[in-house]
Design brief:
Chain lengths: 174, 174
Amino acid sequence: MFKEAFRTVGHMNDEPRWLTAEEQLVWRSYIEAATLLEDHLDRQLQRDAGMPHVYYGLLVKLAESPRRRLRMTELAKYAKITRSRLSHAVARLEKNGWVRREDCPSDKRGQFAILTDEGYEVLRRTAPGHVNAVRQAVFDRLSPEQQKSLGEIMRIVAEGLQPSEAGADLPWLR
Amino acid sequence: MFKEAFRTVGHMNDEPRWLTAEEQLVWRSYIEAATLLEDHLDRQLQRDAGMPHVYYGLLVKLAESPRRRLRMTELAKYAKITRSRLSHAVARLEKNGWVRREDCPSDKRGQFAILTDEGYEVLRRTAPGHVNAVRQAVFDRLSPEQQKSLGEIMRIVAEGLQPSEAGADLPWLR
DNA sequence: CTCCATTACTTGAACTCTCAATCTCTATCC
DNA sequence: GGATAGAGATTGAGAGTTCAAGTAATGGAG
């Protein structure tokens, strides 16, 4: 991005590897789609479920977990957000009565976030509409090959950004 | 998302079309990668350029525009954000001295956002680092075919979410 | 020329997110 | 067992975003 504007400027020739024209187009498309999509889903869920997309994701993770509960740090890890952000989010969801906290008996520092029945009910009511929105925006528009491809690509990108998944507990191997 | 939990519940059989197992994996990968990526770039730019990714994008659009200026609405359209959001953003960028506003002579309601020399300088200084971050996170990890594929896919998704691009001025055709 | 629906943009309040503390508890080292 | 580095989680302040409501100018229609 931002190649042409500088082409005639620098001559120290440690010129950075600017994106090619094709790469720029790809990147632009990605940014646009990601922005529009997140926006779209945020609005859809804000309207129909009274929460942003991230919060909805948290409820889903909890619903999928044994006993509908997860330690805060676990939940943060799964949702790819910071603990701080999660703290604020859970505080809000707690206020809504969709999540409650419970102390971890084995580690007094720990907290469980637990999906309440009310929270589960919200999911049950709004999940169909949300799946539908996702379908309409994404899956209904892509061929099976494209869907597969998208999955592979995004898995690669995600892994590259993961705070060292494999060997995370073996730091000397890095 | 959130399929299994309900499989045994509803029997009115207007059952929504839940995502298949494969679709769920794709969707999960997408969300994770998009979250991690936007986060990563936000941090990178906040650290090196003192602004979030969206703001950086605004400066880039301005830099690419004739006379380094764009009407507010145009800029908002290109960046896929609301006018409100843009107003706040430009206010901030103005405070930094990276953008200034100017009245539109032909339409007294209109405003130009204009990239200042200082703003241009910030871009010049920080663009290489940012391109590098994007390469590392995305392009260096994908094969040419995957890059091409990503571009096509995201273009399709973006077009589907566009507030009616084609025929936007011919509403009766919709 | 006068309405007035529409367009361009801004504003403020409520909400969300980030970042840098902070607090408590755990585990390790000797 | 006492010191202390680190882990788990929260907090508050500042920055960014959304949403609804606002101001001001435009462009027809009659």
